[in-house]
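Please predict the structure of the following assembly.
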Amino acid sequence: MTEVPPLKMMPVEKKAKGADARLEELGIILPTAAAPIASYVPTVEAGGMLYVSGQIAFKDGHLMTGRLGDDRVLEYGQDAARACGLMVLAQAKAALGSLDRIARVVKLNVFVNSTDRFTDQPSVANGASDLMIDVFGEAGRHARAAVGVAALPRDSVVEVDAVFALGAD
Amino acid sequence: MTEVPPLKMMPVEKKAKGADARLEELGIILPTAAAPIASYVPTVEAGGMLYVSGQIAFKDGHLMTGRLGDDRVLEYGQDAARACGLMVLAQAKAALGSLDRIARVVKLNVFVNSTDRFTDQPSVANGASDLMIDVFGEAGRHARAAVGVAALPRDSVVEVDAVFALGAD
Amino acid sequence: MTEVPPLKMMPVEKKAKGADARLEELGIILPTAAAPIASYVPTVEAGGMLYVSGQIAFKDGHLMTGRLGDDRVLEYGQDAARACGLMVLAQAKAALGSLDRIARVVKLNVFVNSTDRFTDQPSVANGASDLMIDVFGEAGRHARAAVGVAALPRDSVVEVDAVFALGAD
């Protein structure tokens, strides 16, 4: 009798096919990859992984600012998290040439600008997580940490960084 | 003369033997692996590592809530960090079948719900760190970051995520 | 026609040569690698990477404390971030024997003790980022996340953790 791996484990080898095509299908146009606002680079490829720097919430060239539990409602936060996710993808595409090189979305860290009374960081973070699943399908299902922080760069309402596993090709 | 590697470096090859057995010895019964409260998965295996999503502090099916420096004392925080650590192990075991596949605990990130006056995040985080050493022995010694955050999902008092290195088998 | 990789991608194989020599050239004397203040280790080597635990801001044996937006100005924060970066390098050197084993600085996470009004975490974090570029040159250019947190261990004004890719030798 051979052991059956747990259902939720998906081998990295099961490459996401056609993430670029899927973007087009969904009518998603990635933003222009933003230049880092400081002394770092947007992405580093190492050990078969692509590490993407924390991206803040640019939408239509404007930054989405504010704080959940204070001046911003859940829907605004979700929209901002999606905007961060789009910028993460824009940086990955700029670095890799094509999102099709991504075999798996491994991990997202989602930092939500929060008062000490706001406790629904997971729903905010879904704005970014749902985007990954829309674009990559099963290979888009990722590990995640979502926390509420006191302050973010330029008063962005959300910041998201990411680790992607790359395929052999 | 050959170079001697620094004592604190432990090769990943030195596999933890019997973490499952050690759990039993210690009388530790892992909680039921909690379903993610949002659009992500509890674990992703990639590049020989297992990435575990941020786990909040469930104990006996109830969430341990509150904030250090405000309504919670150090011991409560440590207990919550241990509860997060147990859930991290429960997720790893559900994904891997056996904790014996883990060769090394690589990194824990410990987010402590803190007022701006509470500064003993390291002692809180030890609740999770000591558990790893209890269960994995030397292979349980890990890198760590512990920080105080403004707010956590569902008002959990602690959140812990993890990276494990997997053995060849 | 062959595809040209985007300029910003640097292969990990392009090893930083002479980081130890560069430290000397710059007149930088690393601090004594601090003992962890809790149940963890300063570094773990796994999967070709060195994971360095979150380092707080020791300078000349004293901790740099306080909060941006409150009792500390930008320059103090930058100096503290550089102090964290120096301790990250001290831990890496203690673990590896020589910084020359580092092929690439992959990722820094920079946690800045911030009030909810301070939003220039990127400029603070540059204290650590610029140090990496000074010491490693192009191989020092890294991915980064910088966020503002409510509180840090021992009231440190900054905490920095790191992932380094190691060379074949």
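Chain C has a mean pLDDT of 89. The longest strand of chain C covers residues 102-113.
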